[in-house]
Design brief:
This is C1q domain-containing protein. By secondary structure, this protein is an alpha+beta fold. The chain is about 20% helix and about 35% strand. The strands form six sheets. Strands 1, 2, 3, 4, 6, 11, 13 and 14 form an eight-stranded antiparallel sheet that branches. Strands 18, 19, 22, 25, 27 and 28 form a six-stranded antiparallel sheet that branches. It has a five-stranded antiparallel sheet with strand order 20-21-26-23-24, with no helix packed on it. Bound molecules: 2-acetamido-2-deoxy-beta-D-glucopyranose. 2-acetamido-2-deoxy-beta-D-glucopyranose binds next to loops.
Length: about 475
């Protein structure tokens, strides 16, 4: 130290004497003036820079409260593929609802989101003896709700963790000295992978720990520098909320933890028609409103409240079934001629309406074009000659040969009579099921009366649209 003045003063002197611009005429006053000019120039440059930064900050704040914030980095990249990796505002639980947007690192190559926290740099755990005697809560820049939403929206989430140890085991002689707490505060003992039921590190998974009898390098409890480093991939329990270590009481012991940010990437695949608001939410819908979903057998209408998260009550509200028919089906046919054959499909000779063409009027056989519930109705007159015993005629609706409805009339008269009959049915039909009318039983020589009194109508009441969609047409 004592030498400094001796060295520096001559150098300064030399500069003063030999500086090219400082010719003989240069006074000390002029030198000060020059320095002052330079300083005020620098000041102006700085002032401009500060102004620019203030504008940038303002813009950032503005955009934080306005339209163009995506829910994840993946979606940010989707909206503008030209963006490069860096810090971005995102709002996983939805913009303008829930918690405030968060400022995260977006890797635009992978589209992954990294939520920073206050414990990313290597941290010495110091010295203490008991299990978990060192404990550090991890503070993220995002609320747990935001991170929950991010995890829900992502295919994978993970977090890297490293523990550099010197004679500082995580577990020794069946005593567990170290653990981390998951998003629910539960203790976890796996330091890599996704098996949360075991105490294990990456070397334990790979089977190459320093001491083959242990599952972690640090558990070798040797007075040498060791390290366990792994990536926890069990999305359901992340992020890590607290780190706990112990058994570092010896002066020769040391432990240093390094925890990576909470990272999420990818999109949960919904490779089918949406069947819930959650499906819609995962595929990018964020505007609350009425939506159609594919129900078990029919299309359903629901209200999706995207200001809530999928597990929160009121996220999905059922409204009702949507009456959709992929093939309109209704018919109205009549028969003018008389008919008296037993167990024979009754054909028709007049078609009033046959939307979809499912009724083959010439054979009298209706073939269900779609799986669903159908309504059928028939009415007509039966004519009977005079008789001294009871005469009757039973008309049936047959489904693939089995009677599903019966109606009829009878007569016991000394005159020729005409009696009306009517029958209805609602039936659950599979695509391809066949329906027809026939006289199932009769006594005497009664017959279905001519002159167009015989009517047969039917229509598709409710289609199992989901079934129709699964079946090839
Ligand atoms: C993005 O992620 C990839 C793959 O993990 C990595 O190689 C790359 O360095 C990351 N980019 C930035 C800017 O961090």
């Amino acid at each position: 130290m004592a030498h400094l003045p001796v060295i520096f003063i001559p150098v300064f002197f030399l500069l003063l004497v030999t500086w090219p611009s400082f010719t003989a005429a240069t006074t000390l006053e002029e030198l000060h003036q020059l320095q002052l000019n330079q300083l005020s120039k620098n000041y102006k440059i700085l002032e401009e820079k500060v102004a620019k930064l203030e504008i940038a900050l303002h813009v950032a704040k503005e955009s934080a409260g306005k339209s163009s914030i995506s829910r994840t980095c993946r979606e940010t990249r989707l909206a503008d593929p030209s963006l490069s990796s860096g810090m971005y505002w995102i709002d996983p639980d939805g913009q303008g609802v829930g918690d405030d947007p968060i400022y995260v690192f977006c890797n635009m190559t992978t589209g992954s989101t990294a939520v920073p926290h206050d414990s990313e740099s290597p941290t010495d755990v110091g010295h203490c003896a008991d299990p978990g005697c060192y404990s550090k809560a991890v503070k993220y820049v995002a609320s747990s709700r935001q991170m929950l939403a991010l995890a829900h929206l992502s295919a994978q989430c993970y977090q890297s963790i490293k523990y550099d140890c010197n004679y500082a085991p995580l577990k020794l002689n069946d005593v567990t000295y170290a653990w981390w707490n998951d998003k629910n505060g539960n203790p976890q003992y796996f330091w890599a992978g996704n098996n949360n039921r075991v105490h294990i590190c990456q070397c334990g998974i790979d089977g190459n720990c320093v001491d083959p009898a242990t599952k972690c390098n640090c558990d070798a409890a040797a007075p040498i520098q060791l390290s366990d480093e792994g990536v926890v991939t069990k999305k359901e329990v992340l992020p890590i909320t607290k780190l706990n270590f112990g058994r570092t009481q010896l002066e020769t012991s040391s432990g240093v933890h390094t925890l990576g940010p909470f990272e999420c990437t990818g999109q949960v695949a919904v490779n089918r028609m949406p069947s819930s608001c959650e499906d819609l939410w995962k595929t990018g819908h964020t505007l609350s409103g009425l939506y159609s979903l594919m129900g078990v057998s029919m299309v359903e209408s629901v209200y999706c409240d995207f200001s809530k998260l999928p597990h929160e009550s009121g996220f999905q509200k059922w409204v009702g079934f949507v009456d959709i028919k992929s093939s309109p089906t209704f018919f109205y046919v009549r028969r003018k001629g008389r008919f008296d054959k037993l167990n024979t499909p009754i054909p028709f000779d007049h078609v009033m309406l046959n939307a979809g063409g499912a009724m083959n009027w010439a054979t009298g056989i209706f073939t269900a074009p779609r799986t669903g519930k159908y309504f059928f109705s028939a009415s007509g007159m039966a004519a009977y000659p005079k008789a001294s015993s009871r005469l009757y005629l039973d008309i049936n609706i047959y489904k693939n040969g089995h009677s599903i409805a019966i109606g009829g009339s009878d007569s016991y008269s000394s005159h020729w009579t005409v009696e009306s009959f009517t029958l209805q049915a609602i039936s659950d039909l599979q695509k391809g099921d066949r329906i027809w009318l026939a006289i199932g039983a009769k006594a005497g020589s009664g017959y279905i009366y001519e002159n167009g009194f015989f009517h047969f109508t039917g229509f598709l009441l409710e289609e199992a649209v989901s079934v129709s969609l699964r079946a090839p047409n």
